[in-house]
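Hey team,

Filing this mostly as a record. A colleague (T.K.) asked me to run one chain through the structure pipeline before their review meeting, and I want the input and output archived in the tracker in case anyone asks later how it was produced. No errors, nothing strange. Just documentation.

Input sequence:
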Amino acid sequence: MTTLPHRVLVALEWFNAAHPWDHNAHYHRWILRQLPRRFGSALDIGSGAGDLARLLATRADTVLGVDSDPRITARARELTPAAAPVTFRTADAPTGIPGASYDVITCVATIHHLPFADALSAFRRHLAPGGTLVVLGLSRPTTPGDHLLGTVAVPLNAATGWVRNRGRTAPRPVSMTAATRPADMSFPDIVREARAVLPGARLRRRLFWRYTLVWQQR
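Output structure:
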């Protein structure tokens, strides 16, 4: 009985490796729904291969994507049509954020690599009055609610991978090739520190081992 959960976990890991999908891209359309229909400028922190930056460009006048990895930044440029109002730059967040202010700032699966409170403070400084910040992050599961969502997500994760790949073995998505590390902050700690920096921030646990943070600059 004690080995069954381990065997199930190994089987699921094998299945997910054969039928991968991008957990972050799953939330891209949700991120768009948090934003105005049109806005001037957007900054995407940890832009990776540029999928979200290109989506933001369907609503923004200009979009800047920044990532610390020059190889993935070069790949983002290759994948982006020349006519799109999107540029990509290699930079380290939060200290290397370029420009003065942006109407929209997004940060997807990146903030757990950064000093959390310092990063949020930098985002706040660079957000224009009336602007919107949207963070999709990872947290370390510690509470019963965390573990329940994780348990529910396991079969849904496998089913989603199967449906998205139509049952075929698929290559790993480009936007998931960057090195990752586990999150070290619990969700309650994230909520406490986020609201200290961003009063009124809306945070919520999400499926597929993610949480969301939405905040508007007044």
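Quick notes for T.K.: The helical segments are 4-18, 28-33, 51-56, 70-79, 116-126, 144-164, 187-197. Confidence is low (pLDDT under 50) at residues 17-21, 153-163, 175-179.
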